[in-house]
Amino acid sequence: MSGVAQLDISMHKVRTITIERFKRLHTVDLQMRPLMVMIGPNGAGKTSMLDAVSLLSASAAGHMKSTLSDMGGISDVLTRGAAGSLVLGAEMLVENEPLKYRLEIEPKGPSYVISRENLYQELVPQPIKYIESQYDNVLYNNPKTNKLARPDWEHTPLESALSQVPKMYRQPEELRKVLTSVTQYHVLDVSKRAPVKLPQQLKPADLPGDNGEDLIPFLYSLRENDKSRYEVIEDTLRAAFPGFESLNLPSAATGMLTLTWKERNFKSPLSIGQLSEGTLRFIWLVSLLQSSSLSTITMIDEPEVSLHPELLSLFADLVREASAKTQIIVATHSDRLIRFLEPKEVLVMDIDEQGYTTPAWADSLDLEEWLADYSLDEVWRMGRMGARA
């Protein structure tokens, strides 16, 4: 997560994501919101949505080839039986004008080819095309002449044109910075020798790390440099665990710190290795969401794992607050978490008769009469929102 470009996301939030023929996501043109919590049965496309956005981010960073390979190749991610290319796209505002991007990828033998790529703004009276690519005919807007021209630098055909635009090309660079800053967090590893349980080096840390490998230096940095955020973390832990008193960060060796957990009713603190899985994961989640260095889009997969249901109310408040500084996408199976959300924050992932994912915002499903008598999670369990196995 280190080195993520920090942007004023109030000006750079992604407005729409387009996905076509990615696994079950056959045709998706999704209006993005600050907080998007996806619900639905297994196989409904929640993880596929996260993976598609990750692939879009990787393509902007010049890592499309390796990311597709990690996913099993383009044949493994294309919608089964569907003809046509894989499409990924996004729209965002740059200087209050929509900037639209579309990338199309076709299978070619065991590999793939970028069949089409476009980046443009529909300005009045004349639209501006920044990238217009079709197979090996790759054209960029030359800022000196304001005309499309072939690149005069070495171009890699298996990576997107967007990832290879020189930084002097301002509009493409704005989009690239936003897309490459997308981050995805999976369930925290809390096995016996997991990084989060081991002593950690004292060093600058803006985030707690994908696997909590920087949790301790991150907490130390907050305690020393941003006391108010550190106090929010401890206050949240006190609300979640009534016996909790404080976190401590004692030295474990030269230049190394560990973490201990002090409770009011016990004289000796617990070491980080003695904490339960749910407690460790909650500390990590709270710390992550309190970071001032969150990327433009933060994706969290199954945050409810190991958490007591009562903690989900606090988590809902945390992600809602954090969504003011990052767009947050959450994939969950927890109906308990849905209880603490508003319909405008919930994306219902259902499957149509053809087996394709059909996402719909819960506030578009005419639930007002049901919500007058039932909570949102009860409406979901009753099958009134769909997205049930």
Q: What does the model show?
A:
The longest helix is centred in the first third of the chain and has 16 residues, at 46-61. The chain is 28% helix and 29% strand. Strand 19 and strand 20 (357-361) form a beta hairpin. The protein is globular and about 70 Å long. It has two domains: 9-34 and 43-184, Rossmann fold (3-Layer(aba) Sandwich); 186-294, no CATH class. It is an alpha+beta fold and 389 residues long. 39% of the residues are buried. Mean pLDDT is 91; it is low at 1-12. Strands 2-1-4-5-6-7-8-9 form an eight-stranded antiparallel β-sheet. The protein has a six-stranded mixed β-sheet with strand order 10-17-18-3-19-20. A three-stranded antiparallel β-sheet has the order 11-14-13, covered by helices on one side. It contains twelve helices and 20 strands.
User: What do the pLDDT scores average to?
Assistant: 91
Major sheet: order of its strands?
A: 2-1-4-5-6-7-8-9
Strand content: 25-35%
Assigned CATH architecture of the largest domain: 3-Layer(aba) Sandwich
**What is the multimeric organization of the chains shown?**
single chain
Class from secondary-structure proportions: alpha+beta
Largest sheet: 8 strands, antiparallel
Number of strands: 20
Number of helices: 12
CATH class of the largest domain: Alpha Beta
Q: Please name the CATH topology of the largest domain.
A: Rossmann fold
